[in-house]
């Protein structure tokens, strides 16, 4: 036996109350004897009735708009969580913290992207920035991140990973231009690979170089000029990853988008990122979470919460500690961080780090 439940459409319910109020006001004006009188008291009563009806309609419309806005933000938040998945607090012995803040106040999504994945080739990370921000940039973010998440496991060479990202972006832009011709779009991308011994190699396409934190010293990871951003220009024939030293135990890397350094105060002064990092490492204990909170607090205080561009920060700290113990011949060392020399077990009890 089938049962059908009759449901009144939500739009009908939304219009029912304003219609009832309007009908009551018209009925009062046409049928109530008091409304036909021209005395001052009758006019005051009539004005009060119509004022109450008008106020009720305004409040009702406001409530409907707020409900729809909350629904849009809920959907945008779900989409953001699907794109920028919460990172585990620990990945292959590296302590991780990341967060982003959209410049679009009507949505919690932005044009910044990041990801950290442990592979058999090492820990690989990406930080990128799509031209523009808000919901319009979500498609490009999805294309780049989706390609990265597959390529890092398939490609042993970091240069081939970058070529996969470039091809994915080109396909996305071609498909997008068929339906919605837009101005030239590009993406800045920074690829990092951190090996078992902490050695760092990088490929940079128009993105700011990260900062390396060693004790209380804060220095840029590299000083060379990056390649052009992905999109407008083809990649060079030779893509050789740049050796950038090592991430030793206790060292941290701070990756960021240009929205951090480009943040201005009311006088037009840029945010002093390196000075803020120097201040952050003075506090103990130094953890990615404390660095992240300190930087976001400083940026929001600098801009008074009115940043003009999306902001994203990713902090990686090497917490691997070697254990020296007697082992059978042929066995390899293992570090407390959870990464063996020949295997990388999955992170246990991952905790989201996308939220401050």
Net shape: elongated
Q: What is the number of strand segments? A: 11
CATH architecture of the largest domain: 4-Layer Sandwich
Number of domains: 2
Task: Report on the biggest sheet.
Answer: 6 strands, antiparallel
Strand content: 15-25%
Low-confidence stretches: 323-353
State Rg: 28 Å
Instruction: Give the CATH superfamily of the largest domain.
Output: PPM-type phosphatase domain
CATH topology-level fold name of the largest domain: Phosphatase 2c, domain 1
Strand order of the largest sheet: 1-2-11-10-7-8
What average pLDDT do the residues reach?
78
End-to-end separation: 52 Å
Strand and helix order: HHHEEEEHHEEEEEEHHHE
- Per CATH, the class of the largest domain reads Alpha Beta
Protein structure class: alpha+beta
The share of residues in helices is 25-40%
Total of helices: 8
InterPro entries: Bact_Sigma-Reg, PPM-type-like_dom_sf, PPM-type_phosphatase-like_dom
Keywords: Hydrolase, Membrane, Transmembrane, Transmembrane helix
Region (Disordered): 324-356
Transmembrane segments: 41-61
Question: How would you briefly describe this protein structure?
Answer:
This protein is an alpha+beta fold and 356 residues long. It is 38% helix and 19% strand.
């Amino acid at each position: 036996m089938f049962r059908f439940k009759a449901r009144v459409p939500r739009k009908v319910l939304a219009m029912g109350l304003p219609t009832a109020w309007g009908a009551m006001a018209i009925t009062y004006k046409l049928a109530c004897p008091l409304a036909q009188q021209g005395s001052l008291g009758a006019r005051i009563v009539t004005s009060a009735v119509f004022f109450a009806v008008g106020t009720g309609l305004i409040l009702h419309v406001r409530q409907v708009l707020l409900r729809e806005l909350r629904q849009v933000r809920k959907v945008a938040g779900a989409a953001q969580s699907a794109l920028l998945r919460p990172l585990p607090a620990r990945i292959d012995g590296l302590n991780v913290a990341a967060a982003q803040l959209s410049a679009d106040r009507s949505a919690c999504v932005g044009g910044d992207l990041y990801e950290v994945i442990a592979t058999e080739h090492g820990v690989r990370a990406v930080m990128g920035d799509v031209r523009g921000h808000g919901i319009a940039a979500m498609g490009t973010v999805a294309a780049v991140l989706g390609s990265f998440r597959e390529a890092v496991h398939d490609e042993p060479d970091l240069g081939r990973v970058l070529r996969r990202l470039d091809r994915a972006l080109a396909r996305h832009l071609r498909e997008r231009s068929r339906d919605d011709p837009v101005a030239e779009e590009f993406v800045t991308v920074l690829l990092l690979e951190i090996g078992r011994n902490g050695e760092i190699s990088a490929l940079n396409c128009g993105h700011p170089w990260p900062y390396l934190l060693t004790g209380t010293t804060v220095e840029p990871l590299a000083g060379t000029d990056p390649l052009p951003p992905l999109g407008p220009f083809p990649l060079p024939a030779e893509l050789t990853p740049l050796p950038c030293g090592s991430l030793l135990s206790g060292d941290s890397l701070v990756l960021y988008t240009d929205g951090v350094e480009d943040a201005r105060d009311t006088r037009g002064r840029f945010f002093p990122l390196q000075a803020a990092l120097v201040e952050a490492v003075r506090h103990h204990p130094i953890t990615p979470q404390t660095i992240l909170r300190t930087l976001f607090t400083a940026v929001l205080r600098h801009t008074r919460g009115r940043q003009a561009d999306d902001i994203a920060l990713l902090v990686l700290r090497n917490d691997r500690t070697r254990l020296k113990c007697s082992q059978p011949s042929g066995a390899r060392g293992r570090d407390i961080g959870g990464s063996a020399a020949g295997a990388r077990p999955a992170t246990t009890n991952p905790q989201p780090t996308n939220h401050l």
